[in-house]
Specification:
The chain is of the alpha/beta class and 132 residues long. Helices cover 17% and strands 36% of the residues. Strand 2 and strand 3 form a beta hairpin.
Length: 132
């Protein structure tokens, strides 16, 4: 599981190819709301996979399934093209301890990946560092 006391000022490293693939998922999403589980291979490892969180499936169900494959939930990735960042408070209702990722339009209309924590009832941005 994600550490209970995240430090948003310390950048989290994400492999460039993986970040590009996540942003691509936001670009090609056909639903008005994209929701993915981002996984890694365990404590201290970088994210290396994702799976859709379809209607009716819970984060706990995904966590159990991933554990059976030696993986764990690294973050929840939610993208709503019509809503700006940060995520909504309701996005943290289920498993508030997990990092939330969003895609947003940066300067010049380029998508960028952003991270968020819920800390002391406030939504706080997590600095992400994309590997070169």
């Amino acid at each position: 599981m994600i550490p209970t006391m995240p430090t948003p000022t310390i950048p989290i490293l994400i492999p460039r190819r993986f970040a590009i693939r996540l942003l691509h998922e936001a670009q090609i999403a056909t639903e008005p709301f994209l929701s993915l589980i981002v996984a890694d291979a365990g404590e201290g490892s970088v994210p290396n996979g994702w799976m859709p969180l379809v209607d009716g499936a819970s984060v706990s169900d995904a966590q159990t399934m991933l554990a059976g494959h030696g993986k764990r939930i690294w973050a929840l990735y939610r993208h709503r093209p019509e809503l700006p960042n940060p995520p909504l408070a309701e996005d943290f209702a289920d498993h508030p301890e997990l990092l939330r990722l969003t895609a947003s339009l940066a300067i010049k209309g380029v998508l960028q990946l952003r991270g968020w924590w819920l800390l002391a009832a406030a939504i706080v941005e997590q600095e992400l560092d994309v590997e070169a």
